[in-house]
């Protein structure tokens, strides 16, 4: 593993770390956020494909790549919904924890990772750390019935959204193409979901169409950040770079930047004690992620 591979692997730290904060700062409804973000991602992917002379893959490679994008966009709509409930600084550690849990369990049961009892025990310990760390990031001093109910709803939403994120990561494994070749069809799948979602909501509320709202197109800018992260992750996950496991773990360092920028720039305030416990929780999540790589 060389310095170039590590730098590329940390691309998602900036892209995915800043994406939720920028999207929240621009504002609008979840439908505005997903529509603009996916347009921005498609623009980025088209430019990348043209520069590298890449066309669309054919057959089932195209189908699975598009399904990967469909999975991400569906999950991201749910994640945006959770932002409206508990804010990005609380939602991001939870969704990161779910993704780490999902990736680890998929690796164990489907790919045969963590062979041997000692590896399984160490992996189980890492999963406990992830759950504990996620809980610590949403811990609050002021406990009320209403806040507990809202948090429970957000956690359930994010748990459902994990299915889409799992499809985003797993579907390309069924193809014979590399991540960079899958990038453009993934972006197409993302935009398809955003368009269908926007049309559906437009029929429900004829006075509000995401297609005619300026804020939707402002989110093209946030889409560039997501696309940069997705592309650097796909490159990082290549066997001759960091590999899938290490590339995935490096990408999850974005949770630190996403959480802290949400607190600092979006006014998602925490008390001194809450902030201390949040930071400890983030450290536990990252430590658990590192453990899963070393097993």
UniProtKB/TrEMBL annotation:
- Write down the Pfam families for this protein, in alphabetical order: Sugar_transport
In its keyword annotation, does this UniProt entry include Hydrolase?
Answer: no
A cellular-component GO term for this protein: plasma membrane
**InterPro entries in the record:** Sugar_transport
Q: TM segments?
A: 6-22, 34-56, 62-80, 92-111, 117-138, 183-203, 215-235, 247-266, 275-294
A molecular function annotated in GO for this UniProt entry is: carbohydrate transmembrane transporter activity
This protein's membrane topology, according to the annotation, is: Multi-pass membrane protein
Q: Is this entry keyworded Disulfide bond?
A: no
The compartments listed are: Cell membrane
The superkingdom of the source organism is: Bacteria
Q: Which UniProt keywords apply?
A: Membrane, Sugar transport, Transmembrane, Transmembrane helix, Transport
In terms of PANTHER family, this protein maps to: TRANSMEMBRANE PROTEIN 144 (PTHR16119:SF17)
NCBIfam families given for it? symport_RbsU (NF047342)
Family, according to the entry, reads as follows: Belongs to the GRP transporter (TC 2.A.7.5) family.
Protein known as: Ribose uptake protein
Q: Which organism is it from?
A: Enterococcus devriesei
Source organism phylogeny: Bacteria, Bacillati, Bacillota, Bacilli, Lactobacillales
């Amino acid at each position: 593993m060389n310095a170039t591979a590590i730098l590329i692997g940390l691309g998602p730290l900036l892209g995915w770390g800043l994406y939720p904060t920028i999207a929240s700062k621009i504002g609008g409804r979840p439908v505005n956020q997903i529509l603009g973000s996916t347009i921005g991602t498609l623009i980025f992917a088209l430019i990348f494909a043209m520069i590298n002379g890449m066309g669309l893959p054919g057959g089932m490679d195209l189908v699975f790549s598009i399904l990967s994008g469909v999975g991400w966009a569906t999950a991201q709509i749910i994640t945006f919904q959770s932002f409206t409930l508990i804010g990005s600084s609380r939602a991001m550690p939870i969704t990161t924890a779910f993704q780490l849990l999902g990736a680890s369990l998929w690796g164990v049961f489907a790919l045969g990772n963590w062979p041997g009892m000692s590896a399984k025990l160490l992996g189980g310990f890492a999963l406990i750390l992830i759950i504990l760390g996620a809980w610590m990031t949403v811990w609050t001093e002021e406990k009320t019935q209403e806040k507990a109910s809202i948090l429970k709803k957000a956690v359930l939403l994010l748990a459902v959204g994990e299915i889409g994120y799992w499809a985003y990561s797993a579907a390309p494994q069924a193809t014979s193409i590399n991540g960079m070749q899958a990038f453009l069809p993934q972006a197409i799948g993302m935009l398809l979901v955003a368009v269908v979602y926007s049309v559906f909501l437009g029929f429900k509320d004829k006075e509000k169409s995401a297609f005619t709202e300026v804020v939707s197109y402002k989110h093209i800018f946030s889409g560039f950040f997501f696309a940069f992260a997705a592309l650097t992750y796909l490159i990082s996950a290549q066997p001759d770079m960091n590999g899938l496991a290490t590339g995935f773990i490096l990408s999850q360092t974005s949770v630190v930047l996403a959480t802290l920028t949400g607190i600092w720039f979006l006014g998602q305030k925490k008390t001194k004690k809450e902030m201390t416990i949040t930071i400890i929780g983030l450290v536990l999540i990252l430590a658990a992620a590192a453990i899963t790589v070393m097993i």
